[in-house]
Amino acid sequence: MTVPENRPDASLPTGVDLLITGCDIVTMDPAGTTLKDAAIAVEGNSIVWMGSATEGRKIERPASVIDGNGQTALPGMIDAHIHTAQQLLRGKLSALRSRGPMRNPPWKNYYVPFEGLLEPEDVYLSGLVAYTNMLTVGTTCFAEAGGPHPDEMARAAIDVGIRGFVSLSTVDQNPDFAGSSVPGSMVMTTKEAYDCNIALVKSLSTQERVNGWLSLRQIIVCSPELIQSLSAAAQDMGVKIHTHLAEGTYEVDYALEHYGKRPTEYLDDLGVLGKHLHCAHSIILTPEEVDLYEKHNVSACHCALGNYGVGIPRLQEMWRRNIAIGLGTDGAAAAGSLDLFAVAHAARIGQSASIGHPYHIRVPMSAEELLAVAINGGARALGVEKEIGSLETGKRADIILIDTDNIDQFSAGDPLFVASNLVVGRDVRTVVVDGRTVIKDREILTIDMNQLRYRLSRRLPEIMARFDNAIGHYGKRRAA
User: What is the three-class DSSP state of 144?
Assistant: First the structure.
């Protein structure tokens, strides 16, 4: 709904720290409210007022003002599944494919071995690169899938100024399947895995923007004892467990062979399904497994740039059944892009091809719906919908301003149409996280980008040499 410009505004606030004026606002609130030529007032880390730009200009002595003319304000995008520690692998697997056949599954043969050779400073650097990249394309909050040295990820996120949840790659059993196993450096005892997860959550419990989650890498490499103990801990501590579920046929076959159940059914037998469980990918699901997601309020994440190569995701069905599902990039090592606008556009095409074509439905999920999945759905999936995921008074000020006067947006007068159909990450101009301006006029204010580029140029060749050596030896061992 569009609110008329002459709508009566509430009393103007005083003591405003930030005033954004002259922009259109796509609130993404439950009523679908949009405001034309409007203003947003922020005090501390919260939105305290929204109304017409005319009224907003009457607010006295704001500490900082952003001119939003020719721009649209949106809630920040929410990446519900990213691998921080794989950021520096961007394009690497494509290069390896050009040399010969790849070993499957990639996560066990390439991603986890890469993570296993990273030192703490490597992960910190990876975090700086990933999180600045995310901010520049409008992502203000993320959920880390679980990687090495999560304390360094948290340090990077705090320094960059993004909001997020970090977690530890957690493996406590190492079966050999599909001719490969997890490198020993990435395997812990069950007690170590439990203790390290709990310690991470506790160490970040007082942080405002960056907190810790628990993690289970995959049912194949996590023992039932660990799965059950971390599930109990998650409920006691009020945090989520980030895991991968129903991501590949090998996982389904493994669960059927070893447990006589499909992956979701196996977790149900263990008694661990619940709103504390966040399941990335969730692709290869039977109708009965989707029923379990709905019954137990399990949250999910659809990574559209990669999921359609595995199977037909149940995105539309989950969304319409009110299952908490968001969108994720899966990290730079997967498809290369951290642009959630691009992920939403890809999901629109994927849904049209996979469920629209068989049933002769031209638009099974609209661009506007998919933008809602990325923002509202992402907030629900991460359990933070009361704090972020829409622009409303009282909510945290996670705001992005996007250019809407580019040539490919001309004549499109509806701000929601432009935001959902035409915008990509490079249209993002200004980013505010928790009331703090972290990008202004496309310049990041928290990190020296020249220094970051220099550090990356010095460190990356060394990391890649280690990785090439590791997978080379790994290949020789397999051949032997």
Answer: strand
